[in-house]
Amino acid sequence: MDKKTHFKRNKIFLEVLKSMRNGAMITQKEMASRLGVTQSYLSKIERGERGISVLELMDYCEATGVSLTEFSARLESRLSFEYTRDKERYNLFIKILSFFHLS
């Protein structure tokens, strides 16, 4: 997988992660307390400056009241949506090129 794709997928992962916390109306400070970490540590995870292990992800999900299965479904749905959207943009780009005879 190229770096651009990896970066984009990681960005979506972090967006879904943060949206779970926001959806549960939990502040970073409260979430950090629930997880037994500092707010700074949690902030770095949510910004992608620090990785998150599967076990930490499970704790994160539990703290927000979302199962790991539900998190995975949300993530897969977002990734699928982005892939479809990118594919549609690419196809439109090809149509435009062919219209101008640039392909």
Description:
The structure is a single chain. With 103 residues, this protein is an all-alpha fold. It has helices spanning 3-23, 28-35, 39-47, 54-64, 68-99. Helix 1 runs parallel beside helix 4, helix 1 crosses helix 5 and helix 2 (28-35) crosses helix 3. The longest helix has 32 residues, at 68-99.
List the helices and strands and how they pair.
Elements: H1 3-23, H2 28-35, H3 39-47, H4 54-64, H5 68-99
Helix pairs in contact: 1-4, 1-5, 2-3
Figure out the total of helices.
5
Helix content: over 70%
The proportion of strand residues reads: under 5%
What's the count of strands? 0
Average pLDDT: 87
Overall structural class, as computed from helix and strand content, comes to mainly alpha
Weakly predicted, low-confidence segments: none
* Euclidean distance between termini CA atoms: 26 Å
Quaternary state reads single chain
Q: Radius of gyration from the CA trace?
A: 18 Å
Spatial shape: elongated
Element string (H = helix, E = strand): HHHHH
Biggest sheet layout: none
Question: What's this, in brief?
Answer:
With 103 residues, the chain is mostly helical.
Tag the structure with descriptive keywords.
single chain, 103 residues, mainly alpha, 79% helix, 0% strand
